[in-house]
Amino acid sequence: MQFRTQIPISKSNNPIDYNSKVLSIGSCFAENMADKFDYFKFQNVINPFGIIFNPVSIEKLFRRVCELDFYQEKDVFFHNERWHSYEVHSDLSNSDRQELLETLNKAITETNKKLKEATHIIITYGTSWIYKNLEREEIVANCHKVPQKQFSKELLSAEVIQKSIQNTIDLIQTLNPDINFIFTVSPVRHIKDGFVENQLSKSHLFTALHQVLKTHNSQLITHNYFPSYEIMMDELRDYRFYTEDMLHPNQIAIDYIWKLFSENYVSEGSFLIMKEVDEIQKSLRHRSFNPDSDQHQKFLAKLQQKINLLKEKLPHITF
């Protein structure tokens, strides 16, 4: 007997392997998946501009990156003793304006280079709700705790999102026509917007994204869309799979979603190396009761030998 429904997932025609170069952009769930790529030592870059939730802000960043449109003094502002940009996450904010501009422009240059080299790009959309700065009349990626009266809150229509996603694809393909796209919608519910409002927000993302994929090629829907939201809402429809806030997937859920992702989007030839990496990672975390013992020294020597053998096959891997 089956006690749960399982989401059917089609295998990618262009799976990720240890020679692939992956760029991941988007919501906090994108970071959950990127942590897995990092753990298994794939070549992965995650959110060079910090966590970004909405499609328009993601498009704006790719426009800057692809056109090498560097930040200027007019693009940053001072608030609460720090300099910020409305286009990026507050993790990049700085007490020194020049340092912030240098950080942002270095991120543009490096991401441009990484995007040209990337074999795969994973984009995770989080919400259709946006905040628009009233003075600048522009959609922001982060409000940086600026008073709410300086913003209007709006729900992006499916049509606007569809155009924004298409613009993002066009920009990226101009720089790298051979890149493989993987899209997903974050399973994290934005309940601060409201329960009904969150569902409406996600539905706009689904409608727009699938419409874009449908216009490209019917195969893209099955091969370039990973159903992380659907897995969380259907296969893992129990609060034991959530963190204490009852909104974010916990480690068990993240591990399960990663398992399904890797089975369908990572090449079978990479599984043995992933197993080797996993064994090394677990060994590195081992803490001996007697670090100076001969037994532990032999353990360390054997571990180093495993690392050296793996590095001979894949020089880019470091522990």
From TrEMBL:
Keywords: Hydrolase. Residues 21-261 form the GSCFA domain. Its EC number is 3.1.-.-. The keyword Amino-acid biosynthesis does not apply. InterPro entries: GSCFA. One of its GO terms (molecular function) is hydrolase activity. The keyword Amino-acid biosynthesis does not apply. Pfam families: GSCFA. This is GSCFA domain-containing protein.
